[in-house]
Amino acid sequence: MKHAPARLCALALLLALCAVPAAAAPQVPGPTSDFYAGDFAGVLSEQTREYIVDQNLALQQYGGAQIVVVTVDFLDGYDIADYAVTLFNDWEIGSEEYNNGYLILLAIGEDNYYSLPGKGLEETLDGGTIDALQQQYLEEYFAAGEYDAGVRAYFDAVLDVVQRSQLLTGVSDPEQPVRETSGGLGLFPVVMGLIVFIIALAVIFSLAGIRSVYRPVPRRGIFWWGMRPRAPRPPRPPRPPGPSGGMFFGGGGRTRGGGVSRRPGMSSRGSFGGFGGRSGGFRGGGGRTRGGGAGRRGR
Amino acid sequence: MKTRLQSPRFAALVMVLMIAAASVLGGARSLHRLQQEVYTVFFDGADGDGIGVFSDIRKNRTDAYNLLGVARGAGLEQAPLTALEQAVQAVDAAGEDPAALIRAHSSLMDAVRDVYERMGSLSLPQQDEDYRQNLYRSILARADTMSRDEYNARAQQFNRALERFPASALRYAAGVQTLPQAR
Questions:
Q1: Cα-trace Rg, chain A
Q2: Which domain holds residue B30?
Q3: pTM of structure
């Protein structure tokens, strides 16, 4: 009887050890240095991979949106939707602020594909729209084994939709010139300089004291000792905005997605994004998906 | 009576009873608060932006209703149409009761699937076929997002907490039920 508690504990421990563990998340590959084209199955041409990367670099001005194409041979027994969601969130596709990423996943050896929008693109690219795009631009090529052509056509269709959706939601305006941040001053240093200048003036005036505020003021040739104070010289007015477009660069007044431009090693430089050279080392922007993609019909 | 009130034993008994009552009431209140936090995720989404299970169910209800209209126009037999119509009404009747909504949505998915498959055996005009596919895929996609929603993890956590003492004892007094999964 006195050993009953110990036995109960041992039994509880045994049961805990025997408990069936929760299903593990799929093991997905890590992003390549190109990031936007993860061609692990080797079915895309170099031209298509470069095209995908270049178009994504141009897409950065659309709130850090990213369209990533990944091809794999097999899914290792995992459901393609689970695989896609895990990969999307691991790679953090799209910007953290707008969650405007999109994943195109081809599982060649399993004769299947799946597309997945980030949370911020769910309304625009819902399951029905994704399915329609896949049917129109991808399915025929995929069925014929022409993966490269299919990806190219489908990618272009999705790119158009994403660009238009980001414009409509006001995330970014590509008509605004994208400022090259590699040279020249941004707005922030100018504003800071102005503030420092005003503070310095205030300090100088306060240290020097108000000297000679009273001076003889000639009035029609006669000195007027009327003790009229001399008004201090007003500070110089701020400079008008420069030709780059006013208060904001590139993005037209909206916060740029944290996304690609803020991370080290990204091709875009500076806090306001912009184009960088194609030097690899690209990364996700912190985007997330809730799922809700669409796959190949009949699967 | 006066001597009883002045009795230390009586005072101790009253104190114990008050502590017990406070524990039960406080515990019940905590359970309700925890449950409410999970419901907030259900209605407002994990990010508090209104995108979550509730919004997905409402959108699926709308798309199911539209699919019903397309199926009627295509001349589908009455039985699956009636089932779908009743399933849509059940979602409406569930109001803002999460458990009822999830149950109703599950029935809605069954009815939608049935109508979709039966429509596949009809020769539909291209427009109707496009509607059939578009609506069905959208519904499926939202069911997928619901199954992955943060609400499910929170509900599971809450249910596990309910199984542990003292919550397991307090839940009946508090009238707190386990939360359903939106899968």
A1: 30
A2: 7-48+153-183
A3: 0.70
